Amino acid sequence: MGKQAIKSPRRPSGNTDKIFGWIATIYTYGRMIKFTHTVFALPFALVTVVLVQRQYPIRAIDIGWVILAMIGARSAAMGFNRVIDAPVDDKNPRTRMREIPAGKISVTAVWTFVLLSGGLFLMAAAMLGWRCFFLALPILAILFFYSYTKRFTWLSHLFLGFAISLAPWGTWIALSKTFSGPIWLLSLALLTYIAGFDILYACQDIAFDRKEGLYSVPTRFGVRRALKISTILHLIAFAAFAAIHPVFQMNAAYLVTLMIIGLLLVIEHRIVNPDDLSRVNVAFFYMNSLVSVVLFLGVTMDEIVRRLT
Q1: SS3 28
Q2: Dmax over Cα atoms in the chain, in whole Å?
């Protein structure tokens, strides 16, 4: 019998390697900007879409541009923040493994990412009208400026909340083509909701921030008072959520949503103890994500019930 040819194992094709390489790159950039955290703000923009269409006709394509604008603005802001904070992140044991300090992405690559994301935001804004395009420029400046605030004021949490709270306001202007309307209630809810949980998150870095001369509510007032301030902000957020019911003439479905949001906020503050901050990430990543999603689902259900009755 002749010798049987031994087949060498098949190696992945060059195209397969490229595909996996692109997937890995996208995943790395997604982790850098914490793309999954888009769930904190995007549902508020989508809630605005539901509320706007009750009073004004909107086009489906404009909803797509709003979503792209949100993704572009947030990605640009997070990329900018990662570049500006890279020297500080490299010193902090909790953030040392972020993509730039760990050497997974170069600063030049991130700057390119910021420019492309900012360009996407400006293009989407332009497609929504000239008002949106001219408003997009100062909004982008506000989003970028946040990265510097913790270097000179403990009000940085409120500035972050303010920057993100522009999402419902901007969505309302983009779709209704008007500056008037009670959407400021949703923006107020988002501002205080974001600022409140950002204070909780900052409690983890109180020792490091004090050492580096960085400003935050925990470094200024201590953990216990910081948790109380966070509670007050979330009470204001809940009041704003509640005020939406009569102002937008919501039905019983929204009241159920309101009760669930209140329960989630209570749980969040119960699991974070000033003597034990080990569960801050649970409160930050799970409770707050649920608040945004529950709000969107509740308002959507409210609209469905409205149309069926």
Answers
A1: helix
A2: 90
240-249 contact pairs (CB < 8 A, 24+): 240/185, 240/186, 240/188, 240/189, 240/192, 241/189, 241/295, 243/185, 244/185, 244/186, 244/189, 247/182, 247/185, 248/51, 248/54, 248/182
Separation of CA 258 from chain center:
21
Backbone angles phi, psi at 225, to 5 degrees: -70, -35
Instruction: Find out whether 169 and 187 touch, Cβ atoms under 8 Å.
Output: yes
Contact (CB, 8 A) for 118 and 75: no
Give just the sign of the alpha carbon dihedral 243, 246, 247, 250. Answer: positive
Calculate what percentage of the chain has a pLDDT beyond 70. Answer: 85
What is each CA distance from 5 to 9, 11, 12, 84, in whole angstroms? Answer: 13, 18, 21, 59
Q: Of 7-11, 80-84, 123-127, 220-224, which gets the smallest average pLDDT?
A: 7-11
Which residues are CB-contacts of 233 (< 8 A; sequence separation ≥ 6)?
A: 192, 193, 195, 196, 199
Q: Cα–Cα distance between 130 and 187 in angstroms, integer?
A: 22
Q: State if pTM tops 0.70.
A: yes
Is residue 254 pLDDT above 60, yes or no? yes
* Location of structure tokens 């797509």: 64
Structural Rg of the chain based on CA atoms: 22
Q: Which amino acid is at 149?
A: T
Using the predicted structure, report yes or no on whether residue 144 has a pLDDT greater than 80: yes
Where do the domains of the chain lie, and which CATH numbers do they carry?
37-308 (1.10.357.140)
pLDDT in tens, 48-74: 999 999 989 999 999 999 999 999 999
CA distance 171 to 47: 10
Kindly tell me if the per-residue pLDDT of 14 is higher than 80: no
The whole-angstrom separation of Cα 293 and Cα 290 is 5
